[in-house]
Structures are given as C-alpha cells and as structure tokens.
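[Q] Does anyone have a clean structure-token version of this?
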Amino acid sequence: MHSASRRSLPVLVLALLSGLLALTAGPAAASKPTPKVPAPPAACANKETPPPPVDTSEKPAPGKAAPSPLPVPAQPAGGPRMGDCGIVVPDGALNPPDTTAASWLVQDLDTGAVIAAKDPHARERPASLIKTLLGLVVVSELKPDQVITPTKEDASQECTCVGITAGTPYTVDQLLHGLLMHSGNDVAHTFATALGGVDAATAKMNALAASIGATDTHAATPSGLDGPGMSTSAFDLSVIFHQAMKHREFANAVGTKEFQFPGAPGKPPFPIYNDNKLLGHYPGFLGGKTGFTDDARHTYVGGADQNGKRLAVVMMRAEQRPTKVVDQAAQLLDYGFGLTKAGAQPVGQLTGPAQAIDPNTGQPAGSANGSTNAATAKDDPFGVTGWVLTLVVAVLIVVGFIVGHRRKQLSVPQD
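[A] Here you go.
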C-alpha cells in the first residue's frame, strides 16, 4: 500500500506541472493574435480613372500619347476601410448629412485621423484644388521674399486670373496669395515657369504627391485645368492639404480674406478677395480652396478650428443645387466636430512623408491601436517567463508539502 502511494507521487507531480504549464500557455497564445489578412479592394466605380470627360480638354497634344492610369495599390492607403465605395463612418455613428458630392473626407488636421468619408479613393478631377499641391511645392522650394517676374505667356493664361503684368516683379508671397485666394491661373503658370517650366513643375508636383502617399494623384496641369491623365481623390487631397497647412505661408494665404495685390507699373495696388465663402462666416474657419471645371464639377477643401480641435473637409464632384457646396461643406464639418466630441474612433489614417500604416488597423505602425503585443507587454510587467517561474515554485512547494505529509504518515504505526 505504501509503495503504491510512493510510486504515484511522481505521476501526481508531472500531472500538476503539465496542468500548470498548460494554464501559462493560454495567456501567451492570447497575446499573439493571428494577424488579419486584409480583403482585396472592392471593385468600386472610378477606382482607376475619373468618369469620362464631357469635352475634349483631356485629348493629348499632337504626337503625344495619353498617360496610362496610375496603378491601384493592392491595399488602400489609410487602412482597409478606406477601400470602401460608400459611406465610411465609425461603428454606431449617426448617418452623415446628405451631400451632392460623389466622394468626400473629413480629417483631423493635427493627427491625420480620418473621421468619416465617402468613397475616399474614388479617382476624380481636382480642378483648382490641384493648386494646393502646387502651393505645397512652392513653399517647399521657394523663399517667401524671392522675386519672380512673369513672362508674357504667364500673363496670358486662360482665366480665372488675378491680373498679373508681364515684366512686373512680384514676391513669392504675393503670388501665393493670388494663387490660393483668387485661384489665379496666370499665377500658377508663373510659378510653373519659375520651377523650370510646365513639364518640370508638374513632374515636381507628382513626385511630391507620391512621396507623401497620394497615390491617386496625377497633375496634368499646374492650374487644375483638365488635361490628359488628370486625377486625384478625396483621400489624396486631404493628405496634400494636411501637409500644406503645416507651412505658415500656405496657411496664412488660404486664411486671408482680403489682400492688396501689386498693380502694374504706375498703378496702385488693388484688392483681391478670398473665393472661399466660409471664411469669416463659419465659426473658427481656417481657410481652404474652391475649384470648378466642366469635367471635374465643383471641388472643395476647407478647415476649421473649434475648441482646440482642427478638422478639414474635402469634397469631389459636387453640385451647387439644391444646396451650395460651401453649405454642404459646413454641414460635413459640423458632423465631424460632433463625432470627435462624442469620442468616436477614426475610420482610417492619412499617410505622410515618414509614416507607415498598419494595413490591418489603418493606424500608424507601432501605435497603441496597432500593436496588441506591445500593449500586452505593458499591461503585464511580469511577462510570461515570470509567471512560469512563479508557478514552478508553487508546484515545488506543493510537492514538498505532499512528501512531508507522506513521511509523517509512514512514521505512524499502521493497523
């Protein structure tokens, strides 16, 4: 009887060790979830190219071929939900206001979080919103006080125009106000000439767009007039505006309501006014840009600061009826501020120059939201190894107790 009990002791110890080690394996496995494999992008309309043009503005020049459409990334920039074709809002959120826009996006101007969107990667034409990309190139390469003298070709562009005079010197800052406040196509061509010519300027615009993750964008003209292969998206223009608003010269220009622009030699300066009608009317409005062509329809970008929260909205292929586009933009900004006040979670994340996005979460790689293992390690300072060692010690204590108890039993006379 006693020898059988002694033989069963190692079996009991092994069983206890196996059971305890199995328990420790549970948390370790739970801390390493199987990564989700993102679904391929849905077959949305206008995923490769904008809708067909309504005129001949995109016909290539004689002897030139039309550029091929930009490739569609295997995974949508900004996270998996940015590949959706329809409305993208936080779980449980109220529906956004109705708009005439084919696509739109509301972002946090400080963090780049996407608050809500509609078909964010649909490829559309930017119209004059492409001037935000040109403006970003300008503030990145040219000094505000640098002097530029327009040519006769610069001054004779298809308008909208500010009214520059060939041979008259202007500073970069003065021209930037004319570009962004009054959407001057003559100013856009002047900047293009200063950057090495139209082809060189558009090449710089496209290279900069690609470097910040604006993979839907191809600038065919520096002004936004339609041209072969012209395309962008609500997501891309949000990325571009986000980066541009980090530059003081750009932010000052889009936020200026009235500016005294230099006149021709012997003539006084004349006022130019900001085309963005929300400036001075919408609470905390920071500025933005409007655009229109027959092919692009109405496009819009604008931002506002309310109670320390800065949001911006981009709208593509919108119409002025039954509600003006600026009023639709104001409603989307109201909606975005409501979501952030309620603590709604972002639905994506804008890309940036040095920012990798985790495709599983749509958050910056390594962030708290995108790194479950890091969060687990922080919440569990003991670690798996520490727990295993503790449990082994506990087993040894139990074994010692059992052995001691058995010896005490053996020392007692048996009947």
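[Q] Thanks! Anything notable?
[A] The first strand starts at residue 87 and ends at 88.
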